[in-house]
Design goal:
8 strands; alpha/beta; 3 domains; elongated; 8-stranded parallel β-sheet; 563 residues
């Protein structure tokens, strides 16, 4: 380690800043404590891992339900279910053994045969366990999906009430209850509404979410004077895509639920939280946030305390250690100790390596979250793609640090055409310059693909900020260091094309997502940073055109084509 001593001050500074950054991310936030020891009720869907309601052969083992309800007992004495097939009906006798209550849901869809099977089984369960079945919920958001009419649902509710002797209700988003026909309103014992501020057409930040819920409850109470109103679903996701300034996080989830509990206690409002446990299968159907509404993680560990301060990264010190270890790994791969660049270069490279390590630590949990569960695939292509993005970030960091410490910044200016030329002959061993060109091409192509996805299919697309943080910042710094950021570059049509595409999609995404979406804003900045070298490419194109215009003899021939 010939020059390690020269690197030591820069390394110490980088390590201290990394720890400081993680400490800030993991800082605990004080929140109002839950006013009651137990929650009124929580939605229970038993699926774990690759289990899914879309698999008709799936039968949930009774032992799995017993384990789940025993875990929930310390949090609530009531569960809400949504169907009585696939073994979920076993939740009723298990709850009876444990002294718990059940809001028994039946799944009503378009198929009359399936609907009849759900109705008959619910009636049987209510008759067998009258002390356990608190009420039967005759369908969930059926009007929202447009699968049955309100009149049909009313007939089902009347029949189930008459044959089971249990209370009945119907559950839907609050707006659809206001539009429901009078016959449905009169056929249920109480009104069950869903209020999910995150999913509203105009999403709200968590700071305004409970106030918004209060106004909706008041509106529904005014529409149904004298009727009992129950909030059948409310909650907040702990991870997932931002919707404007509605930001999923563990702290925000805990804040919403705990502030809601204070409100519900003060107004003696009955409620059910969605949901007990995270459901990975919902990511494929609802986007990333769909899988993270649980009070408990998928592994059945609690996400936060109901009385203590809450942190998004309670294990931040461990994450900081992993980030630092990965950062040193990047420096080792870049052979840093064999070189002694200037002091500024050493600081920039040390900080860059630790930034790359932190970006990787942030990226891989995001990669798992963003890889939506699809039972048709054994190896999910989205997960493979996310892993490739992580490898791309490491390779970019290693090569750009290597060229910086070795005094070979000229190699970082490799054109996209050089990368394309190597790709056309991939069996030739790439030089460092070839590799950097290919990595820049991959970063631009990937960023353009993501931005186009965000423009045309935004609901199911996330912002892979951590993965593109390294290419965007590292290429920017090296371009500035070699003085090539805005330099007029001849024959760089590929760079010019990508710059135009990235700038155009950045503007569209910024407008479509609104400036309130911080994740969108950061993504737009990263894509514009990747597009910046294209300014030099366009300058080169315009200079060449001016030259041709003023000197016709310089016009390109068939032997020397130029744009």
């Amino acid at each position: 380690m010939r020059h390690f001593d020269a690197w030591l001050p820069a390394l110490i500074l980088a390590v201290l800043l990394t720890v400081t950054g993680w400490a800030w991310l993991g800082r605990p936030v004080d929140l109002p404590p839950a006013p009651e020891a137990k929650l009124h009720c929580a939605s229970y869907t038993p699926f774990r891992g690759d289990q899914t309601p879309f698999d008709p052969t799936m039968i949930i083992p009774k032992a799995q339900i017993e384990e789940d309800l025993k875990r929930l007992q310390s949090t609530t004495d009531c569960i809400r279910t949504y169907a009585v097939n696939q073994g979920i009906d076993q939740a009723v006798p298990v709850a009876a053994e444990l002294g718990m209550k059940v809001l028994l849901g039946i799944w009503i869809g378009r198929n009359p045969v399936d609907n009849e099977a759900q109705i008959k089984r619910a009636i049987e369960l209510a008759k067998a366990h009258p002390e356990t079945v608190k009420a039967i919920i005759v369908g969930n958001e059926v009007l929202l999906r447009g699968e049955q009419t309100g009149e049909t649902l009313a007939g089902m509710a009347q029949r189930i009430k008459a044959e089971s002797g249990a209370k009945v209700t119907y559950a839907d988003v609050w707006e659809f209850w206001l539009r429901a026909p009078d016959v449905l309103k009169q056929s249920v014992d109480f009104i069950t509404i869903h209020i999910l501020p995150y999913w509203e057409d105009d999403p709200l930040p968590v700071s305004e979410a409970v106030k918004h819920l209060e106004s909706i409850v008041a509106e529904v109470q005014e529409a149904f004077p004298g009727r009992e109103i129950v909030i059948g679903e409310t909650g907040w996701p702990s991870e997932g895509r931002w919707r404007e300034d509605a930001a999923p996080s563990i702290v925000n989830q805990a804040r919403y639920l705990r502030e809601f509990l204070v409100y519900a206690k003060a107004h003696q409002l009955d409620y059910n939280f969605i949901e007990a446990f995270d459901q990975p299968w919902k990511r494929y159907q609802e986007g990333t946030a769909g899988g993270f509404w649980g009070l408990f993680h998928e592994d059945r560990t609690p996400k936060f305390s109901w009385t203590e301060p809450v942190s998004n990264y309670p294990n931040w010190l461990t994450l900081a250690g992993i980030s630092i270890a990965l950062g040193f790994g990047v420096l080792v791969l870049a052979d840093f100790w064999h070189h002694r660049p200037g002091g500024v270069a050493r600081v920039v490279c040390a900080l860059g390596a630790m930034l790359a390590g932190s970006a990787l630590v942030l990226h891989f949990p995001h990669a798992w979250m963003a890889s939506r569960y699809d039972p048709k695939w054994v190896l999910e292509w989205e997960w493979i793609l996310e892993c490739v993005l992580g490898v791309q970030a490491v390779a970019t960091a290693v090569l750009l640090i290597l060229t910086t410490v070795a005094g070979r910044l000229r190699d970082t200016g490799a054109s996209l055409l050089e990368g394309i030329t190597w790709i056309r002959r991939p069996f030739r061993l790439p030089t460092i310059r070839d590799s950097i060109a290919v990595l820049r091409l991959a970063a631009l192509l990937g960023a353009a693909t993501v931005s186009l996805g965000l423009a045309f299919d935004p609901r199911y697309k996330d912002f892979p900020i951590a993965a593109y943080l390294v290419p965007a910042l590292f290429f920017l710094v090296t371009d500035i260091a070699r003085g090539g950021l805005f330099a007029a570059l001849a024959d760089r049509r590929e760079e010019a094309g990508f710059a135009l595409l990235l700038a155009g999609t950045a503007v569209y995404v910024f407008i479509n997502e609104t400036p309130l979406n911080l994740m969108s804003d950061i993504w737009v900045v990263l894509t514009l940073l990747l597009a910046l070298p294209g300014i030099g490419a366009w300058r080169g194109i315009f200079q060449r055109r001016r030259t041709i215009s003023s000197n016709p003899a310089s016009r390109p021939t068939a032997a020397s084509p130029v744009l």
